[in-house]
């Protein structure tokens, strides 16, 4: 693979980052994941905008302008011959001379790394046909989930809790309500109405979420942005999650309780079709 590090395109074996990088020592960094379908970047502008917001919230300098960022994404897709897959982008507060909790001097260069992941047939994933199963777990993350930081250990632990429970993913619960999935936004559907938690610092403001809700409204579907409990979710007609890597993914079981007839629901299936058709 060819990767991008601080202005250079390099074979992955030759790319490196300092031991003192604050991304490595403090998880002091932000990231974005943009999907590629048929060689085309999906929702790039949304991801670029959210990156700027994450950087701003952490008072971190942007290493590149948006047009240059787009150019780097396109160049990596080209160099790695990505038809379907993902582009991962990470910006950290750089590598100061020594480990120190305080932010380093303003002139410390941020570290920027991008790489691609080839995923042939990403949009035709078998999981989309069967749907996925989730378990609920407590949400033990920090309180600023609206910032897309690389501090992903709890998401990783959540994924392992799901695996140990024999299912695909976990939905996190705080004060009795679902916040989101480990790496996706969560939705239920009841009597034709799509319900998903409102935006706040409690969840990541998904780029796919914004697109899917807009498309749902354009298709005259009803949308309600509010929190919901695991109990309400288990009594829902259907459920799904959204993210840049899964698009719209039906959820067919929560904590062992099948939803409806235990197969992907019509609204989730329709939204997936609409999203893939309109984004490509
Ligand atoms: N995750 N919520 C969380 C906690 C996430 O990590 C993500 C994305 C989302 C969905 O956001 P978007 O629609 O912008 O991808 C919601 C990415 C895909 C990841 O970490 O790989």
From TrEMBL:
The Swiss-Prot or TrEMBL record lists the needed cofactor(s) as: pyridoxal 5'-phosphate
Which top-level group of life is the source organism from?
Answer: Bacteria
Task: Cite a single GO BP annotation.
Answer: branched-chain amino acid biosynthetic process
- EC number(s) of the enzyme? 2.6.1.42
For whether the record's keyword set contains Amino-acid biosynthesis, the answer is: yes
Q: Name one GO cellular component term.
A: cytosol
MF-aspect GO terms = L-isoleucine-2-oxoglutarate transaminase activity; L-leucine-2-oxoglutarate transaminase activity; L-valine-2-oxoglutarate transaminase activity
Q: Which UniProt keywords apply?
A: Amino-acid biosynthesis, Aminotransferase, Branched-chain amino acid biosynthesis, Pyridoxal phosphate, Transferase
Q: In which pathway does it act?
A: Amino-acid biosynthesis; L-isoleucine biosynthesis; L-isoleucine from 2-oxobutanoate: step 4/4; Amino-acid biosynthesis; L-valine biosynthesis; L-valine from pyruvate: step 4/4; Amino-acid biosynthesis; L-leucine biosynthesis; L-leucine from 3-methyl-2-oxobutanoate: step 4/4
Q: Which reactions is this enzyme annotated as catalysing?
A: L-valine + 2-oxoglutarate = 3-methyl-2-oxobutanoate + L-glutamate; L-leucine + 2-oxoglutarate = 4-methyl-2-oxopentanoate + L-glutamate; L-isoleucine + 2-oxoglutarate = (S)-3-methyl-2-oxopentanoate + L-glutamate
Q: Which family does it belong to?
A: Belongs to the class-IV pyridoxal-phosphate-dependent aminotransferase family.
| Biological role | Acts on leucine, isoleucine and valine.
Name of protein: Probable branched-chain-amino-acid aminotransferase
According to its UniProt entry, this protein's organism is Histidinibacterium aquaticum
């Amino acid at each position: 693979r060819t990767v991008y590090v601080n202005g250079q395109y390099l074979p992955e074996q030759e790319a490196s980052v300092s031991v003192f990088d604050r991304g490595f020592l403090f998880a002091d960094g932000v990231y974005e994941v943009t999907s590629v379908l048929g060689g085309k970047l999906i929702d790039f502008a949304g991801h670029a905008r959210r990156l700027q917001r994450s950087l701003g919230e952490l008072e971190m300098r942007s290493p590149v302008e948006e047009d240059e960022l787009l150019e780097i994404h396109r160049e990596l897709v080209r160099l790695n011959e990505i038809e379907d897959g993902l582009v991962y982008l990470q910006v950290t507060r750089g590598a100061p001379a020594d480990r120190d909790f305080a932010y380093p001097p303003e002139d410390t260069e941020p570290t920027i790394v991008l790489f691609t992941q080839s995923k042939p047939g990403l949009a035709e994933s078998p999981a989309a046909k069967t749907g996925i199963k989730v378990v609920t777990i407590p949400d033990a993350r920090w309180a600023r989930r609206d910032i897309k930081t690389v501090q992903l250990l709890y998401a990783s632990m959540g994924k392992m809790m799901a695996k140990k429970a024999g299912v695909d993913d976990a939905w996190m619960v705080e004060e009795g309500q679902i916040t989101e999935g480990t790496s996706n936004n969560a939705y239920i559907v009841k009597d034709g109405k799509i319900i998903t938690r409102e935006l706040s610092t409690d969840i990541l403001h998904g780029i796919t979420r914004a697109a899917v809700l807009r498309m749902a409204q354009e298709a005259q579907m009803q949308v309600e942005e509010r929190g919901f409990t695991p109990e309400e979710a288990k009594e829902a007609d259907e459920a799904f999650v959204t993210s840049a890597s899964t698009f719209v993914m039906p959820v067919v079981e929560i904590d062992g309780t099948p939803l409806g007839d235990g197969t992907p629901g019509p609204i989730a299936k329709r939204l997936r079709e609409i999203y893939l058709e309109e984004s490509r």
